[in-house]
Amino acid sequence: MNFDLVAPLLHRIYDVANHGIDSHRQSFFRIPDTVTAQERQQLADAGWTPNTPVQWPHDETIQRLRSLAAQVDLPRAADAFVASLGSAGLQWQAVLPAVALGLAMPEHAHQPMGPGSDRCAICFHTATAKDRTQLAYHRALQGSGWSDEDGPLAAVLTLEDALQCSPDSWPQPAPRDIWVLHQLLDLLRRLPGTARYSQARTAIQAAKWLQPAKPWRAGLLLEALAFVGVLQAPDRPGLRTRFTSARERDQRPSVRVEVPGPLAWWTAAHGTNDALLQSLFGHLQRPTAEPAAPPRHPVPRAKSAARPAGVPKAPRAVPGPLAAGDVYAVRFREDLWGAAYCHEMRTDEPTGVVRGRMEYLDILSPTPPTPADLAERGFRDRMDGSRWQMWCASLDKTSGVKRIAQGVAPRPHAQGMPDRITHGGAKELRHMATWNFPQL
């Protein structure tokens, strides 16, 4: 499964604007009409067919996980984990935590997390199907794939994909990957004893050893290290120390803590699990000096600057200050556009933020609307029949929102002003339209 070849197509499909829930309450992503039959076949041939739901009963999922983990050579998984720090794809970061989960997972009967919940209190298994391709997409993009949210099924799929590759093809860490590992561990050991995961995440991001140098990149690495037991508290161990149940890992010191255990409970005073580090990575000789950075494995971008073939070009924005009577084209999806009308403008004090009181026009089009499309066009209410407007900021600074006309007279509306007018940015026009247009 070569992710780099299909990443641009997957970015377009797994855009939040394409997300929906079907009649069976199953999550899915609508494939835009602008994705051609040839491109769909390309995804299928590469093994990346979108909306491929997978679901196994609890006991079968646990059996699969334990069996797959037993097939993995732990030193190879450790090597691949280190390689994911720079020279290999991020999907290899997920393999070691998935193996740790499978090796530690005991056989057990399903125990509900709580009344009315189908989530297992031992392993986080849920009866909800997961999209195999979407999980693989996020694994390649972010290095996730063992998360409690997706339960043991995510770890099963991670190991299945890894084991499709011959053992000799699993990545080996470059000297710089090993150097980065030790730099990260030294950084964690130097933190003040009171430092928690958020300070560690900030320090790792600032060091810029990982690419992309984003908070989520450092955060997921810390979660992986804690998950296996490199970062742990004495009474909150990682899985290479002992198995901890879903209920235990779901506990946090306070509601303000966003990460699961054991990272939620770790502080720098707890240090690192040097015995586990030696077991997993002790065979990797630390370079005496910083190695030259090899060509990095390209980190796939979630958005491409290039406009794909077949996707309509955004209209040229009409210049000028915001005013009543302006009409803005709004891109709801790459294959669906609408428009919003400005009733009046105002400047907030003391911030100086300029806002327009916007309302959707009753128009949907696969291409950006033009001034000729606006003639005699009324407003579009919410699906419950209520009128809706929003005070929007940044109308002339938001991607996918372009002024296409000025001085347009409004059509009369049977209802008066809405009782409540919300405030937000122009980007909200893209998302709030789901309340007005059932096609979205």
Please, could you describe this protein's structure?
The chain has helices at residues 3-13, 37-45, 58-71, 74-83, 95-104, 132-142, 151-163, 175-190, 197-207, 215-228, 246-249, 274-281, 428-432; strands at residues 19-21, 27-29, 53-54, 130-131, 327-333, 336-347, 354-360, 390-393, 401-405, 422-425. The chain has 440 residues and is of the alpha+beta class. Strands 9-5-6-7-8-10 form a six-stranded mixed β-sheet. Strand 1 and strand 2 form a beta hairpin. Helix 3 packs across helix 5 (95-104). The protein is elongated, with a radius of gyration of 25 Å. The two termini are 31 Å apart. The mean pLDDT is 93.
For the largest beta sheet, what order do the strands appear in spatially? Answer: 9-5-6-7-8-10
Number of helices: 13
Q: Gap between N and C termini, in Å?
A: 31 Å
| Low-confidence blocks of residues | none
Shape: elongated
What does the largest sheet look like? Answer: 6 strands, mixed
Multimeric state: single chain
Helix-strand makeup class: alpha+beta
User: What is the N-to-C order of secondary-structure elements (H for helix, E for strand)?
Assistant: HEEHEHHHEHHHHHHHEEEEEEH
Beta-strand segment tally: 10
Name the helicity range: 25-40%
> Beta-sheet strand percentage?
5-15%
Mean pLDDT: 93
Q: Any idea what the radius of gyration is?
A: 25 Å
Distinctive features:
alpha+beta, six-stranded mixed sheet, two-stranded antiparallel sheet, elongated, 10 strands, 440 residues, single chain, 13 helices
